[in-house]
Write a structure and sequence with these properties.
- This protein has 571 residues and is an alpha/beta fold.
- It folds into two domains: 3-258, no CATH class; 265-429, no CATH class.
- The chain has an 18-stranded parallel sheet that branches.
- Helix 5 links the parallel strand 3 (94-99) and strand 4.
- It is elongated, with a radius of gyration of 27 Å.
Length: 571
């Protein structure tokens, strides 16, 4: 890798934050490709990630002639440059520390760091340089996790011990470290695309410039050499989809390497029946399977690799999948999964009444959908754990979806509605449990089910009429409606929203406040259909007649939806 390119090593997270491409130029002249792209995009601001000893004053003068504002972020060395890039990103609570001499490790995490808004700081193999350590110390109270890249031979324990809550992610070489990074952040990635780049030093520039592109869709970035390492191929065939995009020409990523990952058994004919007609004679499929046709049925089959459903209304019945089942039928599509065994199921899209899991078993269900999707389990379905980072209705009509973990991805808060009985716990990073029929932002609805095991309810509102039957429910720092009486009559009317449910006199709120049956009794006198009060700050609504108003800290704003009319009340 060109030694001058290390100054841009940590640029991917800032590029994603600014929704900007990374453009390369010679140090002493703005090359014609970069200048042409700046003009095409109508760029007004350029961040220069190198000092004048690398990108000279002549280049900066040409940018000024193009009436482009220049923000210099280059430092006296690569360590200071990385710090300057981090400062430009603003606030964050997780950081990455990579060894400056192991460029491939930093590039392996570049798209993930960019998608998650984590800066990449650089260290020496045995210690953290003073300017980097001083910066980390200055933000340490806000940082709850530091990811150290590479094994101990690349980054010593002294580095890990000098940062807040350090976790090491590394393998014996750059390709194994790449795989360990993909495994560690598997639930943060979206798998509709996979980017492939050459991980050898002289080709790393392609991965560098491609990182913001991969970050736009939170896609995995897989490294290869001249040949695809065996472990990388095996991992990709089991855990990554077949939609692979190479970064760079054939001199960087050989055609046969790309074809190794793209090759699959494709079912593209609408209405076709694949597999075996006899359940007793299961057909073995020797490759990854990709279903692109509509109404395709795959029955009585097995594969050691992954299956990717892209066609609408596919049926899988009595299918064993050694790797991952990807379900991606589109925003209006459906999929019926019956009697399927898979290592992992990943839902990438679907309609509101779309994904049906019947008598199906998988270790993990990941819902990372680009659309509002509903996943229903029925029969004897058994999922070890469910991870959600997008909008989903989880309906455990039968079977179990295991422990449900709700996480944020790419700066977007998940929206989750849970229905039926969840016999395991529900764990989430920071979510609200609220009254609602439709939810926005990071709110969760827990509708009509009992929590039978331990649940973590920190910083949230719990739905009053849902019964808590387990003493292990942890109530944490929850809010309640104890300040209700402080509202004026007009303010109370603002809170009215048309929902499906009515309050019951026995409803109550758990948390650091008393049960408020008497308040609900008062509300019943208004003959409200439903309402919600959430004490946290500001009044907002979702511009929908089927959604609640949310009051936070009882600081009221009158910018409510005029289409929602409050009934007259006599208090």
């Amino acid at each position: 890798m060109d030694k001058n390119l290390v100054d841009a090593l940590a640029a991917a997270p800032l590029a994603k934050l600014k929704n900007a491409p990374i453009l390369l130029t010679q140090g002493d002249v703005l090359n014609t490709y970069a200048e042409g792209e700046l003009k095409r995009l109508g760029v007004k601001t350029v961040y220069v990630t190198a000092g004048e000893q690398v990108i000279t004053k002549k280049v900066l003068e040409r940018l000024a002639e193009l009436k482009i504002k220049v923000i210099p972020l280059g430092g006296k060395d690569r360590f200071e440059t990385a710090v300057n890039l981090a400062k430009e990103m603003g606030s964050f609570n997780k950081i990455v520390v990579a060894t400056a001499g192991s460029n491939a490790d930093a590039l392996s995490i570049s798209s993930i760091a960019a998608a998650k808004g984590m800066p990449i700081l650089l260290s020496e193999a045995g210690k953290i340089p003073t300017q980097v350590k001083n910066y980390i110390d200055s933000i340490g109270s806000n940082v709850n996790q530091t990811y150290i890249l590479g094994g101990e031979g690349v980054s010593a324990d002294a580095v890990k011990n000098a940062v807040p809550n350090g976790i090491r992610i590394g393998g014996k070489d750059r390709f194994e470290t790449n795989l360990e990074i993909l495994k560690f952040f598997a639930n943060d990635l979206k798998y509709s695309k996979v980017y492939l780049a050459n991980g050898e030093d002289k080709h790393l520039v392609d991965a560098l410039t491609g990182a913001p592109l991969a970050a736009q869709t939170s896609s995995p970035l897989l490294l290869t050499g001249k040949a695809l390492p065996g472990n990388s191929k095996e991992y990709a065939k089991l855990n990554l989809g077949p939609n692979v995009i190479a970064l760079g020409g054939e001199s960087s990523v050989a055609k046969d390497v790309l074809q190794e990952l793209q090759s699959s058994l494709v079912y593209s004919v609408d209405g076709m029946d694949a597999g075996s007609a006899d359940p007793a004679k299961v057909e073995s499929l020797a490759n990854t399977v990709k279903i692109t046709g509509k109404n395709v049925s795959l029955k009585n089959a097995k594969t050691n690799y992954s299956v990717y459903i892209h066609g609408d209304n596919a049926l899988l019945d009595n299918v064993t999948i050694g790797g991952t089942l990807f379900i991606d039928p589109g925003a209006h599509g459906t999929a019926n999964i019956n009697n399927v065994k898979a290592g992992k199921i990943v839902v990438l899209s679907g309609a509101k009444e779309s994904i049906h899991l019947r008598n199906t078993k998988a270790g993990t269900l990941l819902v990372s959908s680009s659309s509002e999707v509903r996943v229903e389990s029925s029969g004897t379905t058994r999922i070890g754990n469910t991870v959600v980072n997008s909008y989903v209705i989880l309906d455990a009509a039968g079977g179990t979806l295991g422990t449900v973990e709700v996480v944020s991805a790419d700066g977007q808060e998940p929206v989750v509605i849970l229905k039926a009985a969840f016999n395991a716990g529900v764990v989430y990073e920071s979510a609200k449990w609220v009254f609602s029929t439709k939810l926005y932002d990071n709110e969760l609805e827990v509708a009509d089910f009992d929590i039978l095991k331990e649940a973590y309810l920190n910083h949230g509102i719990f739905r009053g009429y849902t019964e808590i039957t387990d003493d292990e429910v942890y109530k944490g720092d929850m809010k309640a409606f104890e300040v209700f009486e402080e509202l004026s009559d007009a303010e109370k009317e603002i809170l009215i929203a048309y929902l499906d449910d009515t309050f019951d006199a026995n409803d109550g709120i758990v948390g650091n406040a008393y049960r408020i049956n008497t308040v609900f009794e008062e509300m019943r006198k208004w003959e409200l259909e439903s309402a919600i009060w959430v004490p946290e700050s500001g009044l907002s609504n979702s511009n929908s007649q089927n959604s609640p108003f949310v009051i936070e800290d009882l600081t009221l704003s009158m910018n409510y939806n005029e289409n929602i009319k409050a009934p007259s009340v006599d208090l």
